[in-house]
Specification:
alpha+beta, Nucleoside Triphosphate Pyrophosphohydrolase, 8-stranded mixed beta sheet, two-stranded antiparallel sheet
């Protein structure tokens, strides 16, 4: 994964700076893919679009009390694409998920506020996140994963951004992901 991140061409200043942070952390901490590293750890997310590339799959995340992308902790798996696909299948209850590319779609360093999860205190930490562009069938039935989300739904691209209660994500992450998706498929 280190080499993939190193080879990734950042899209903007945020990705450029976050790429440097992720690489430096991976060099220093051999346990970066484990949640046991409470300072920061690797996560993988998915920007899931439908076959027409005009809708986005989102889940209402219980901890963040917001509609958000799908994804999760790597938990020792250094294949972040595999993690992203697994998380989408688990969190949305769907099976028809494919990667539109095996290349990284976006990079982010995300702050996570302290919270309780399954009765345990989780301290404030960073998610060193790799995002992939995935495609799923928007006609396949979705389902809630009760211990993580309370809703799963498809939204028009701009509505997906607007549904998030997290300003930073709306303005800097989800809007960027939509912009990149539109640029990639505008001539198709």
């Amino acid at each position: 994964m280190y080499e993939e991140i190193k080879a990734y061409t950042p899209y903007n200043v945020q990705e450029e700076k976050d790429r440097k942070t992720i690489l430096a952390f991976l060099e220093k901490y051999p346990d970066a893919f484990e949640r046991s590293n409470e300072l920061a750890h690797m996560t993988s997310s998915a920007w899931v679009t439908n076959r027409d590339h005009d809708r986005i799959l989102m889940a209402y995340h219980n901890i963040y009390d917001s509609w958000s992308w799908l994804g999760g902790h790597c938990d020792g798996n250094t294949n972040c694409l595999e993690v992203a696909i697994k998380e989408v299948k688990e969190e949305a209850g769907i099976s028809s998920v494919v990667a539109l590319s095996d290349k990284i779609f976006s990079l982010e360093v995300l702050s996570v506020n302290a919270h309780m999860k399954r009765g345990n205190y989780v301290p404030t930490h960073l998610h060193l996140n790799v995002t992939y562009l995935l495609e799923a069938d928007d006609h396949e039935q979705v389902r809630v994963k009760d211990d993580e989300n309370s809703g799963v739904a498809w939204f028009e691209m701009d509505e997906a951004v607007e549904r998030s209660n997290e300003k930073w994500f709306r303005d800097n992450i989800y809007s960027k992901l939509n912009e990149k998706l539109r640029r990639q498929y505008e001539n198709n």
